[in-house]
Fold this protein.
Amino acid sequence: MQAKETLFADLVQGRAQQFQVPLYQRTYSWTEEQLRQLWTDILEQAELLESGEKASTHFLGSVVLAPSPQNEATFPRWLVVDGQQRLTTLSLALAAIRDHIADAEPDEAVRIDEEYLINKRRNGSDHFRLLPTQADRAQFAAYVRGPLSEQAAGGTVAAAYRFFRRKLVEAADPAAPHDVFRIEQAITSRLALVAVTAERGDNVHRIFESLNNTGLKLSEADLLRNYLFMRLPTRGEHVYETYWLPLQDSLSNDELEQLMWLQLVLDGDDRVRRQDLYAAQQQRFERGEVSEAEIEAYIRELYRRGALFRRLLHPEEEVNRAVRAHLHRLDTWQAQVTYPALMLLLDRRERGELDSRDTARAMSYVESFLVRRMMCRVPTNNLNRIFQAVPGQLPLDVAVADGLHQLLSAENRFWPDDDELREKVRTAPFYKFGRGHQRKMVLQRLEESYEHPEPVDFATAQLTIEHVMPQSPGDEWLRMLSEDVVDGESTKDLHSRLQHTLGNLTLTAVNAELSNHPFERKQGLLQGSHLEMNRRIATTERWGADEIRARADELADRAVALWPAPLRGVGRAERSRDWNLAHQVLAALPHGTWTSYGDLAAFIGSGAQAVGNHLANTPGVANAYRVLTSEGKVSDGFRWTPQDVGEDVRARLSADGVRFTANRAADPAQRLSADDLALLVGGAEDDQADGEEEAAQRIAESQGEQTHADPFYLQLVAENSPERRFFRQLAGDNSPETVEAVRALLSRWEELGGDIYHPDSKFTGAILTLNEASATGSWVSPMGLTPGCGLGGTAYVGSFTDRTLRAELLRRLNELEGVDLQERKPGRGPDPSFRLSVLEKDRNRELLVETLTWFRDRWESRDRN
């Protein structure tokens, strides 16, 4: 290989020649961010030329070239191994200059064309000095031939050309003009390149791998694509146009990489990680002599499965109604972990091994497996392994759907049976399980099971989860609940045990109106609901413990019918799992804290008496002595294990930082509720949606100023996670009302299906995001929040390029009282923002939620259209 510094003019001028971007290269992908930086560099060099100053050239980067297989002595052709983005961009900039001067300086326009863009006496594809990869070739050729009259032409090539046309108009501003020919000279003679030229015998693919290892990162899909098409010297064009280009057009690069990984899994490799995709597939191909026909067969199979994979990404493309419904629900669940099993089912159906009815039945097992495990609080940390193993472990001697049922029912899969599901529905704090959208989907499916003649359109209804008995009950609620207390249990413990159970939860569009009102007020609002489950609640005379349990039993019956059970014969591990969870949370109790039997019982979905019996009869449970009565006293039934006999419990508690009041009771400010316990072992449910910062804030509010010296509070907030940094700074720089308003806003955004990204960097904030359904596979953000740095927090409008959408978003935001946003000038200044204190007003929060709902719907509609 030879390397030398050169200029764009020296590289492309002279005799007729062509630079070919190979099939295996990624498409042109420079965005406006890179274009703006390049334009700044070009203008800087143009100004130096105009001033006559002597200065060094600006280094643009490298270009790696290799002789093309179609090379001719009279017409050299070069493969652009690396640097196609730079060459394409500079060529488009020169095409824009040519078209900018065409009317006033036609001869100069012809000169630019012939020196840099075309081979004058060559026809067909040989006419172009630069020949991009097939996906970009037609549009690039159109712009090189002349300006397109259709300004709406899309794509990155068109966007780059239009960028330069726009900048050339700006550069001609009489107030600060730039000479267009100086700009041309800056592009062709002031931007330095290092041209690295390989010889004919060099292994071009090894060059790719070397570039990837030295910072010019290629994705696993890029590497595999490069490898495949370098192994297709004679069939490459046909395979690319017939299979690869349609596949590449239908999937983003990230989705294509996921499909390649799934193909490996479906072919039986149940241990390969996605980040090892390229090495694993390369190893499979190099175990023996692989012909072009075998490479083509692999790509053809990838193309076939790509159509199946799109149904997982876009369930509306599935024809069969029952299968489509399951795919929609699994997509709503965000169950990407199940893709190996779902792809297997769709693949086997296409091969004729099962029909759509059995496909839907098999998918019901997958859905039930996820839902029942979430409802019964089975940890999710092994789901990847479980579903990746499905293609390789599926029994061969039974039908596919029955085999999947059998495989997921294996004892080590922990698929809860009907008895366990009923008990958890009745006793477990469902509201603290899984993610918000998953809890909402469970309630939606339960509502659908009533088969109302005029069902609610859940796609458009703005529904949220409501606690019928509120989380912060007033005196009327507590008086009613006191009538249901038995066995000496306190009203507070009974409320704590029942508030988050499924029997006390419903869906409503009037969450704010329901609030903490007495049940009689809620009855009237629920009676007018279009949801059958709400009408049934409204017909109940009162809403206490018996009514909540009765409704839980009714919903449990429906859940059992909706989500199939595992095959019989599977041993129940529910009890050992529950007590193991209790042991985990007790071991995690921070210094200076205690909990009660009732709190621990509410956390695991059991009873206080059962918890007391278990701790009394189970030796070796860490911190068992820190479980006290609800009054903070040591239980009369507490017994030390043999090795601890004789030690004073209060002395041990004092040594652990637990304070005592004048009446010898443990300080109630140090008591951890069931909600606080749930946050201590959030890792047991790795999809837990409720952040630990909520516990820190709640404890801070309940304990007052002295909380900041409390060990538990310090332990929760001192860990420097992005979420905790945000909420800690938010609380320090804003009023409690603002903090609560922000929490409510973020909660509503998650209920709308959005995500919240806390940057893991020096910047502290919360960015509201949506997963973008476009080919980019990235996300879009309507707004972000910063906590304040002592000045009061701000909400700023996110950066995205749809100007019409952005203008309407600003207009809607300006309807909030105290908000007056002006769009920033392109490329200048920060994004428009307003103070978070504005959100303290209820009406402002309502308007903002309406605006975010509009944005979500508009953006999703934009992607579909």
Q: What stands out?
A: The radius of gyration is 33 Å. Residues 570-577, 683-720, 772-778 have pLDDT under 50 and may be disordered. The chain is about 50% helix and 10% strand.
